[in-house]
Structures are given as structure tokens and as C-alpha cells.
Amino acid sequence: MTTMEVERQRGRYAALAIAAVVIVVGVPLWWRTTETYRAWLPVHQINELAQLQLQLNVDVEVVFSRGTLTPEQGKKVPLTQTRDEEHTVDENTSLRYKYETKYRTATIMEEDALNQPTAAEADVALHTLSESPCGSVVVHVIPESSSLLPEGVSVYVGRRRTAVLRTSSAPRGGVTLKEVLAALEPQVTQVLHMMSFSHTDIAVAVSDRVRLGKVSRESLVDSMRAFKSSPGYEITFSLLNPDPKSHRLHWDIEGAVQNYIQPLLTKLAPVANFSIDSQILYYAVLGVNPRFDGSFNAYTLNAESLAHVINPVEARLGSSAASSYPVLNFLLYVPDAHHSPLYIHGHRKQEVPSNAFHSPRWGGIMVYNVNDRYGPGAEFPVDVSIDMARVMGVFLAQLRLMLGVQSSAPPPGFLVEPCGSAGLADWELDRLMWSRSVENVATATTTITSLAQLLDQIGNIVINDNIAQQVSSAVTSLQLAVAELEMGNLGFALQYSKEAILASERAFFDPSLLHLLYFPDDQKFAIYIPLFLPMCVPILLSLLKIASEIRQRRKDKQAKKD
Amino acid sequence: MASCCSLKILTILTFVLFHAFVESNNFEAKAGQFISSGHTNNWAVLVCTSRFWFNYRHVANTLSVYRSVKRLGIPDSHIVLMLADDMACNHRNPKPATVFSHKNMELNVYGDDVEVDYRGYEVTVENFLRVLTGRLPPSTPRSKRLLSDDHSNILIYLTGHGGNGFLKFQDSEEISNVELADAFEQMWQKRRYSELLFIIDTCQGASMYERFYSPNLMALASSQVGEDSLSHQPDLAIGVHLMDRYTFYLLEFLEDIHPASTTNMNDLFKVCPKSQCVSTPGHRTDLFLRDPGSVLITDFFGSVRKVEITMETIHLPSPIEKVTEEKKYAEPQTEIHAYVDQLPVAEIIHQKPRLRDWHPPDGFILGLWTLILLVFFKTYGIKHLKHIF
Predict the structure, then answer these.
(1) C-alpha angle with apex A432: A320 to A493, nearest 5 degrees?
(2) Distance between CA A281 and CA A314 in Å, rounded?
(3) DSSP letters of A398-417?
(4) Is the whole model's pTM more than 0.80, yes or no?
(5) What pLDDT score was predicted for residue B331?
(6) CA A358, CA A453: separation in Å to the nearest integer?
């Protein structure tokens, strides 16, 4: 072969070798080095969670006391029944309520407890006998002839998890137990709807998942008023004194909080953390001028002007800079001496006994008049000590509303024991825990699924290991929470749902997930072409030349053959 | 005569009854509005994306909107204000500590209670997107966060220099309409707003809202694609243009709004027609669920609180039991702390050489010696190796 041929052959081999290196080594290397690091996410499990099928299990115990069942009916008891209710909220969410009801007769000690003169005492006595676990409901059925409940009242709901139900008819001979139970069922269901949860409560709690769903008006108002589930809340009590020259106010806020508010917050500890502050603001005025109303001989604020009171005051209230928990503000306003007494009037000019109003998701304001504490000839400034029991009574009621302890009107014939100094009845806490657990589970699943969708959609986001770990732990906690709800362990379900929501929020709001890597296609071309084109064009051309030479040689061989 | 009188009385009576009827209907309507607008709090994110003295008008725009929004009730804690804030104390400002929005220095919008949350070089695309999506580092204080929830109405106002599909941030970076739309989608996914009003006053502003796809967004822009937004009036003493036309007429419109007014969005769309603005303002409402005619201006610009009368109280026992101080006063044994010597005086005075641990020679020294050895043996031959061993 001539040197030219040898040279050309060498050239061909060189071009082929370079092309091979570029394709085999270069392209994969470039691909791997420009890849964004994406840690593995449990996508399959997340997609499973997108289809949420919640099952809520309630343990109900119905205890028949003497005189409610005939002896033949009594022989069939103890008996366990399960009732299922299925609701489909939308195509991704379905709810199932399972009521496991145990029927039994009362023990001697329970009969003694029910022999108390009033229902409240009976409730206390029953509680000392046995403590029902979180999430369960006990209904004691008493005969129609019993005088434990007052006239016209058929159900009494106590402060714990017990209700007392009075049957409407005396036990009859020829009726089977099944019929008795069937007759009792509507009332028991009403009690359950009140003491644990009703479908509207749960539907509102999962409304986060339902895209722009339609919920009923009352439940929408309730959901707008109460704060969303959050791991913590900050409560601030403020005393507004616009007239320090006339009034020198003393309030024992520490003692009041310790005595009245703290028991409620301690009871709510499984639901959220609370931190309490208090402050006194001097020369803080309301933004609205009250008008003097001759018919009441007092200054009045009507309902329409109340809406404009809050904004000027809010600018002066502080809040902790460090945390981003929602803040509940409770303001106590003592009107100045020239505008006392000041009363709040409702929409139809009716008097408001509490003299207080509240704003959804913000807090409440109470007006406290002190003009009756001193006469006209008093020496200013007057020392006034504020009756904290009355003030805290109002604030506690507002706090309960803000936190979602719904107190919708009980059905007719129900007598509900007021919660007293504990601030919260056990069944109200259960109710709150049910709706909070479901809300947490719904929110956490939406967060996780939308995060997975987002990361899938935007291919350029870097997923660090810590995010993957948070997502995995959120998924695990969610699965545990759903399992616990199915088994009826409300306390554990709430705890797992809280962990799930914390982990999912941390993963979703991680600062490293910011999508700033949007490159439009023309920009990508503009960057790569100057780099790769000068390199690739010679290689491509030489490969093409080799290919055309091979084809030429084959044609020559064919021609030679022929 | 009597019949005439009775007729008069009858008409007066019917009038009064009718009025009372309308009043009561009004209350029902107000109560109904509690539900219909669906929001319980208001937030505002006001961003001025320019810096440098010749962009005075953008800062004045943003500050004027800030003033209006504050006047109508949104508190500072609910406003995230992002400005370069280099106008008031600029050495070219003939009246320091002021930013005027009308010529002849009529209205100072800077004042002494401006709360700027992101100033100077903190106004970046990254920070803006972080504020919107909530992905801020945990150490960020409350005033720099957008802590909205699913019942918040948010007003977002952007002004600066823009182009077709992008908005320039501080002369060094830009945000594209796709990124903005994605940010709003992430806000929707996390339910960070109930309704959102987006106003942009830049050149070709309408291109910024073209790509929105999340529900409940309403957008207004000062000019269409291909048009420039023009500035309003220069002040000869200050030497720069003070405001942009669209925001100027928007502010004139907002001056007539007070917290209880019932003006709706359709009036806002009519602000600054082509005759006044030279550019054609545009708006987009197809993603918004409610009819714009039923949306009040104060739903976004103001902060009208919904209130309810507290009907129930809880009866609590009084007097308060004294809180018993059960703190233990015996404190645990504390360690005896002593100060470390501030100056190692002993060492300075006595100048004792400190015993240092011996370390084998590290790489550089080793390499240097190896080099010397190699050169030596290369030059003189290997037989001299016996001198080493």
C-alpha cells in the first residue's frame, strides 16, 4: 500500500477512535455531570395515598339499666353489633364510619351511681367507677319512669364521655331485643353525632383535599372561624387603657391565666402547643367614635362599626418575631371616663350581655365598663381592679370558638352539662381530636402528593437526601395514622397525624426546593451550540466521509464483479 | 280632607316599612357576604423591582400603593414591602428623606412610618419567589414572611421595567412569566390564598399574566404586549419623573375608596383609559370564580374584618385561688467558674519556648528533599548512594 493509503487509513482509524471516545465516554459523562441530583422518593406509596380511604372506628357501649329490658330481652345481652356508614366525598376521597356497639346490662355499682338525685352527680359517680378510653362513647339507658332527668329532657350529656338516655316507652313483653335496639338506634346515633363526630364535621375537615367543594353554610362559617390545624398557637391577652389619667387598672392576669385558661390548654396539649403573653397598652383608642344613645343613657357601638375597630388597634399589638404560629389576640378595652359606659349592640339593636365580639381567625375584644366603681366626686386617677372571672369567662368562650370546639345548638330534648372550670368536656376534646386528625391526614396527603407532582413536573429541581427522608417519614406516619384511625386509637392517630403533617410541611417548604432553573429552549441551544458544534462538526463530517468511501468501494467491488 | 290625610299617612307608612324591609334585607345581605367573599384576612405583597435614581417613579408607585393599602386598613404585619429604598436618602435627592408622588412636592409618600421588609440588594427574584411560595429559611423573622392561609385574599403589585414575558429585577436578573405562573400554582397547591389580585405596571405588562393557570386569580396590567407604559409627570426641582400614568390614575381612583365603600372591580377595570394612559390597560378574569361585579375593591385593598357578637360566656368560679409558689429555692450545686487568663502574661514575660509535639516533615519538605536528592544523583551518579546508607 502506498503511504497515501496508509495515511488515509490512519486518518480513518483516528476519526473512528475519536468518534468512539466521544460517543462512548463523552456523552454519558456529560449526561451524568449535568444531571440534577434527585434522591429516591417513594412515589408508589405516595400515589397510593393520593387515593384516601379513611375509616373511622368508634367504640360505643350501650348499658341498659334495670327496668329498660324485660327478662327475655335481658338474656340476649351482652351483644356486639357493628354498623357501617359509607360516604364518598369525591373520586379520590371516601370515608367510612364504623360504629362497634357493645350492648350490656349495668352492674350493681353503676345502678347505685345512677340512683343519685341529679344527673350531674350521677355523671360524677359513674366517672369514678370507670374511665372510658379516648374516642369512645358510653350511653346509659334508663327507664322512662326514672326521675334522674328533668321533664322534657330525654338525653343528658355529661362532662366526660358518658351520656344518659331515657327510653320513650316502657319495656313490653312481645318485643324482641332486635326491635328494641332498632327503636333505640336513632337516638343513639344523635348522641354519637354530637359526642364524637358527624359527617358534616369530617367533610369540612377533608375539604382541603376536595378541590373547590361545596360545603354547607353553617359548617363553612365554622371552618372560617376556627384556626386551621397548626402545631402551635400563640395567645396574647392585652389590656387597653385609653385614659390612664382617670383609671389606674389592676388585673391579675397571671393568676387568671393559671386558674382559668391553663386547665383548658393543658387538656388541649395533645392537640397543639400554646404560648401565652400578656401586655398593657396605654393611650390605645378604638378607631371608631361611639355614639351617645339617649334611650340607654350610654355610648353604643353598633355591629357595623365593629368591623372597623380592629385594624387601628392591630397595628399597635406586637407579636413574637421568631415563631410563625398563628396568633390569637384577646383585648380587654376599658373605655375612657368621658365615653363610659360603652355597650355593644347587635344587628337589631339588641343588647349583648357579654359586651364582647370576636373576629374569625383573629381573636376577641371585650369592653369592660368601670364607671360604676366610682362616684362623680372621686379623685382621679381611680384604682380599679378588674373582675378577672367575668373577663376570662368571655375570653374562654371566645377561645373555644377560635380553636374549633364547636358548640352548635344541641338537638331538641338534649341537656348538655356546661364545661365549667375545666374549660373543655372530654367528649368535646374527642370531637376536636377526630376532626383534627382527619384534617391533618387530609392536609398531609395533599401536601405530599402535590410535592411529588411538582417534583415530577419540574425536572430541574434538586432533591436532597434530607427532603427524601422527610417525605419517607411523612409517608410512614401517614400510613400509621390511617391504621390507628381504623383501629379506633384516637390518641395515637392524632400523634401520628401531627408527625406526618410536620414532616410533610418541612419537606414541602424546604428552602432548597426553589425552582429557579427554568431554561427556555432557545437559551439551552444558545449555550450548547458554541461548545459542541465546533467539536462535533469535524467528527461528523469525517464519519460521513468514511461512510461515503465505504459505499464507493462497495460499488467498485460490485462493478469489478460484473 | 280626612281621606287625603290618611292617604298621606299611608304613603309615609309604606315608605317607612319599605325602608325597614330594605334595611333588614341589607343585614341579611351583609351576613350573606360573610360567606360569599370567603376570606378572613388580607395580605399585600408590594414589589418595586428597580433601583437607581432615574427609576424614582417606580419607588413612588409602590409607596403610593402602600399608603393606600394602609389607609384602607391592612396593617404592616400583613404587608410585605420590597423596595430598593435608595431614593429617600440618595445624594441626588434635593429633599432628603422624602419621596414625592405629585409634582410641586405635594404628597410625600415616604413619611416616617414606612416599614420596608426587603430593601436594597435583598430584592431579588429568589427572595420574591421564596416569599410567595413560603420556602424561606427557618431563621426568617415573621415580618418577612407571607403567612397567609386558605382564607386570605392577597394583593400583589409589581412595578419596574419589563418586557414581553419577563420582568427585570434590579438590573441584574429577570423573572419570567412561566416562573411566576408556577409560583402561583405552588401557592394554590398549598392553599396559600383564597383569591389573588395581581396588578403590574410595567411595559408590556399583559404578557406577565398570560401564562397563569391556577384558579381564583385576577390580573390587571398597565399595557398590552408591544406597548410601553409611560410615566406621568416630571418634577423640575427633583429632575425625574415622579409616577407612572397607570398607577397615578389608579391612586386617584383609590382616593375615593374608604373602608366601607361598595365599589366593585368593574370600576377598577375602567381606570386609566387609553386617552389618559396612552397604553391600553388589560385585565384577565377568566380564572376567577366569582363575577368581578360582585367583588369589592376593599376585598383586596382594604381589610374589612368580619365580626361576630359573642353570645355565650362561661361561668367561672371566683375569686381566683392564689397561685401557690411551689418553686424549690434550693438550687443545684453550681460549678465554680473561673476566668481564663486574658493575656498569657507568664508566657510573655518569661519567654519560655513551648514544647511542641514533633510532627514528621510534611509533603512540601519531603518533595523538596526528594528533588534535591534526585538532582544530586543525576549529576554525580548512583555510586554516591553509599553515602546515604
Answers:
(1) 95
(2) 12
(3) HHHHHHT---PPPPTTEEE-
(4) no
(5) 55
(6) 39
Rounded to whole angstroms, how far apart are CA atoms A302 and A282? 24
Please, which residues have CB within 8 angstroms of residue A310's CB and are 6 or more apart in sequence? A359, A362, A365, B305, B307
- Measured distance CA(A528)–CA(A544) in Å, rounded: 22
Cβ of B32: how many Cβ atoms within 10 Å?
12
Chain B nearest-CA distance from A423, in A, is 8
β-strand pairing of A298-302 with A162-166: unpaired
Sorted by sequence, the CB contacts under 8 Å of residue B26 that are 6+ apart come out as none
> Which A residues 211-270 touch B at CB under 8 Å?
212, 217, 220-221, 224-225, 228, 252, 254-256, 258-260
Q: Which H helix or E strand runs over A384?
A: strand A382-385
Q: Is A222 exposed, middle or buried (0-12, 13-18, 19+ CB in 10 A)?
A: buried
- In this complex, the residue of A256, A315, A362 whose CB is nearest that of residue B320 is A256
Residues B355-373 as b/e (b if ≥16 CB within 10 A, e otherwise) read: eeeeeeeeeeeeeeeeeee
Indicate if B203 belongs to the active site. yes
- The type of residue at A177 is L
Q: Which residue of A has its CA nearest to B311?
A: A354
- Record the cell numbers describing residue A215, joined without a space: 360545603
In one-letter notation, the amino acid at residue A213 is G
Residues 529-558 of A with CB under 8 A from B: none
Specify the higher pLDDT residue, A513 or A23: A23
pLDDT of B355 reads 64
A141-145, A271-275, B67-71: which range is least confident on average? A141-145
Q: A112 to chain B, minimum CA–CA distance in Å?
A: 30
pLDDT tens column, B264-301: 999 999 988 888 888 899 999 999 988 999 999 998 99
Distance CA A13, CA A24 (A): 16
ipTM of this complex prediction, to 2 decimal places: 0.79
Q: Name residue, grid cell 383586596.
A: B300
Burial class (CB in 10 A: 0-12, 13-18, 19+), A1: exposed
* Distance, CA of A374 to chain centre: 47
- Min distance A557 CA to chain B CA atoms (Å): 59
CA atoms of A218 and A200, how far apart (whole Å): 10
| A residues 483..522 contacting B (CB < 8 A) | 508-511, 513-516, 518, 520
- CB atoms A362 and B133 under 8 Å: no
Number of A–B residue contacts, CB under 8 Å: 182
CB count, 10 Å around CB of B287? 16
Q: Is the peptide bond before A78 cis (omega within 30 degrees of 0)?
A: yes
Residues A227-256 have pLDDT tens digits of 888 888 999 999 999 989 988 999 999 999
Among candidates B267, B261, B269, B272, which has minimal Cα distance to B299? B261
Element (H, E) at B162: strand B162-163
CB contacts of A511 in chain B (<8 Å) are 130, 135-137
Render pLDDT for A474-495 as a digit per residue (tens, 0 to 9).
999 999 999 998 888 889 999 9
The residues pairing with B42 across neighbouring beta strands, listed in sequence order, are: B153
d(CA A207, CA A443): 9
Catalytic residue among B48, B78, B102, B203: B203
Residue type, B251: L
Dump pLDDT digits (tens) for A444-469.
998 999 888 888 877 777 788 888 99
Q: Grid coordinates standing for A559?
A: 462493478
Task: Say whether residue A396 is in contact with chain B using an 8 A CB cutoff.
Answer: yes
The DSSP symbol for B110 reads S
| Min Cα–Cα distance to chain A from B223, Å | 24
Q: Which three cell numbers stand for residue A411?
A: 338537638
- C-beta neighbour count of B192 within 10 angstroms: 21
Contact at CB, B303 and A311, closer than 8 angstroms? yes
Inter-chain contact B323–A356, Cβ cutoff 8 Å?
no
